[in-house]
Design goal:
Elements (H helix, E strand, L loop, with lengths): L2 E2 H11 L4 E4 L6 H9 L4 E4 L3 H15 L3 E5 L2 H17 L3 E7 L15 H5 L5 E4 L6 H13 L6 E6 H5 L1 E2 L17 H13 L3 E5 L1 H5 L3 H11 L3 E3 L17 E4 L4 H8 L4 E5 L21 E6 L13 E4 L2 H15 L2 H32 L7 H9 L7 E5 L1 H4 L2 H4 L9 E3 L7 H12 L5 E6 H6 L3 H7 L4 E7 L4 H9 L3 H4 L15 H7 L3 E4 L3 H12 L5 E6 L7
Parallel strand pairs: 2-3, 2-4, 4-5, 5-7, 6-7, 9-10, 9-12, 10-11, 12-13, 13-14, 15-16, 15-17, 17-18, 18-20, 19-20
Antiparallel strand pairs: 1-8
Helix pairs in contact: 1-6, 3-4, 3-17, 8-12, 10-12, 10-13, 14-23
């Protein structure tokens, strides 16, 4: 039976497991919207701007570990969503972005809204194409889905002409095959890596976001305990997922932000095992520029071969699935470690545990001293929230100078799966991501901690939260400025910044009325400055069934 291109798209997405289509339509998407009127298998989630659209699809895909789908308007709508596409690209999110294209019969005249969208998105996608023939739509869609979901995962793009969406044909709409992508690393490389670790005098592990995405956190924990090795996660500037339990005594916390401090932190180790991490994504250039000490022997395990040896010489590169690789690596290390090495590893681990627990206690003590200050300090705010976080909480954060990895450093997160921070640094991601994650995990309470500056890039997402009654609790850490830029200016030792003078970095005169803005978009909101009141209100909100926003004034000093 003949079906339209729009219906074929919906049929294949449904058969591929897609249940939500995040979008903001325009004229070139109207055939798809018309098909959705009668096809209720996939829920269309409307946002008022493309930033929250792509961010929602990103968050949903990361949480569900399935394909996220964002449907954007032609050229201008795609342009609005490009920053969020960049975030998804840096995170490796399996994301299908579609956009309507002008009628093929108008193409040669370069009509209004037309552009070469494929060339626009190509740098930030794994694969992108425009569908020129309806008969090709099924095979191209299968190719796109398989590319998005095959490691290294990432976003893909399809441009769909409006007349192709309306055209009728008999099509094979079978879903893309679901592949088992768990490939073990080569045996000889695993043995060489195991020998290095078994012989190491002072090893450490760097665990990245792809460890979480490969369900390999348990394997990292087991190997760390076996080696008595501390585990460091990604720097705050690239901290996507929490790749080691924050309350584990071997957690060495996140790596520092800048190359000299990273080098200093890693200098004591002789062997580093890097798993599922881009080594390294630095943010600002500082000298000395060497982030990994030259004497360190590197082992790197990743599904993405491009990351192995990309920035630093690697002694052993392991291409394969982190879970499978770590399981076999641990078995080999066990067979290779003599009793003397096992005893040394146990002593190392005990020493690390003592130091890490003392560091955590000292931070809690400092938090107790700061919580009485008004406005709240970043640590005062985060420690107040840390005390009331449910065991199964999900946290989405987009407020780096406030969050400052405090939840992890305080040991307040009790699951590793439920932490999301963006790895691309295009602002406006947090609100939309939180909504997408909540739709994927409706039974887990979700707290989104946002800066007021970042929130304003994607504030339209609050309307979607209200419209669909998505119960996310938003806490806005409000310092009425682009604080990270002031911090960065001073670290660059810019002359005016060193005098405390800044241009266009304050969000004042007038300050943004976050409460009024949230209410205008349908979200209940209050401004709260007392930590006990905040903790009580947030706790109740996390157990509630509607979205709420709390605007919290905080001090305007740099974090430490």
């Amino acid at each position: 039976m003949a079906i339209s291109g729009a219906q074929a798209l919906l049929d294949m997405l449904f058969e591929s497991g897609v249940r939500y289509l995040f979008g903001n339509p325009g004229t070139t998407e109207l055939p798809l919207m018309d098909a959705l009127v009668l096809d209720r298998r996939i829920q269309y989630v409307l946002a008022l701007q493309e930033v929250p659209v792509v961010a929602m699809a990103d968050g949903y895909a990361q949480a569900s570990r399935t394909l996220g789908v964002a449907n954007l308007h032609i050229s201008c709508g795609l342009g609005n969503g490009m920053g969020m596409l960049y975030n998804a690209y840096r995170a490796g999110t399996p994301l299908l972005v579609t956009a309507g294209q002008q009628d093929r019969r108008l193409m040669t005249s370069e009509p209004i809204l037309w552009s070469d969208m494929v060339s626009v998105v190509r740098p930030w996608t794994k694969w992108a194409t425009e569908v020129d023939r309806l008969d090709d739509l099924p095979s191209l869609l299968r190719r796109a889905i398989q590319a998005a979901l095959t490691p290294p995962t990432g976003p893909v793009f399809l441009s769909l002409p409006i007349d192709l969406q309306m055209e009728m044909a008999e099509l094979d709409v079978a879903a893309a095959p679901r592949l088992d992508t768990r490939v073990r690393p080569p045996a000889e490389a695993l043995r060489r890596a195991a020998e290095l670790l078994a012989e190491a005098k002072n090893p450490a592990i760097l665990s990245g976001s792809r460890v979480v995405e490969a369900d390999a956190v348990g394997q990292v924990v087991a190997l760390a305990e076996q080696l008595g090795a501390p585990v460091f996660t990604e720097s705050g500037t690239t901290h996507g997922r929490l790749a080691f339990p924050a309350d584990h005594a071997l957690y060495g916390q996140a790596l520092p932000l800048w190359a000299p401090e990273v080098c200093e932190r890693l200098a004591e180790f002789d062997v580093l095992l890097v798993v599922g991490m881009d080594l390294l994504q630095l943010y600002v250039y500082f000298e000395p520029a060497l982030a990994v000490p030259r004497h360190v022997r590197l082992i790197h395990l990743d599904q993405d071969p491009r990351q192995l040896g990309k920035n630093f010489p690697t002694e052993v590169g392991l291409i394969g699935d982190p879970q499978a690789g770590l399981t076999e690596l641990s078995e080999l290390v066990t067979s290779l470690m003599p009793p003397k090495a096992v005893s040394a590893a146990r002593r190392r681990g005990e020493s690390r545990e003592t130091a890490h627990l003392e560091r955590r206690r000292a931070l809690w003590h400092r938090a107790e001293q700061e919580v009485v200050q008004r406005p709240l300090t970043p640590l005062g705010l985060m420690s107040s929230l840390a005390r009331i976080l449910p065991e199964n909480v999900t946290v989405v954060e987009e407020a780096i100078t406030t969050t400052n990895t405090y939840f992890e450093r305080l040991g307040a997160l009790h699951t590793t799966s439920g932490y999301f921070a963006h790895r691309g640094w295009a602002l406006g991601w947090g609100i939309g991501c939180a909504l997408g994650v909540k739709l994927a995990w409706p039974d887990r309470p979700l707290l989104a901690v946002l800066g007021e500056g970042a929130a304003m890039y994607g504030i339209q997402g609050l309307w979607t939260a209200a419209h669909y009654r998505i119960p996310v609790t938003f806490v806005v850490a409000n310092n009425a400025q682009y604080h990270i830029l002031k911090v960065g200016s001073q670290q660059l030792r810019l002359p005016a910044a060193m005098r405390g003078e800044f241009e266009a970095l304050d969000l004042s005169q007038p300050e943004i009325d976050m409460v009024g803005l949230a209410k205008s978009l349908g979200v209940e909101a209050q401004r709260v400055g007392d930590p006990d009141e905040l903790a009580e209100r947030v706790s109740k909100s996390l157990a509630g069934d509607v979205p709420r926003l709390f605007d919290v004034p905080i001090q305007r000093t740099a974090p430490t």
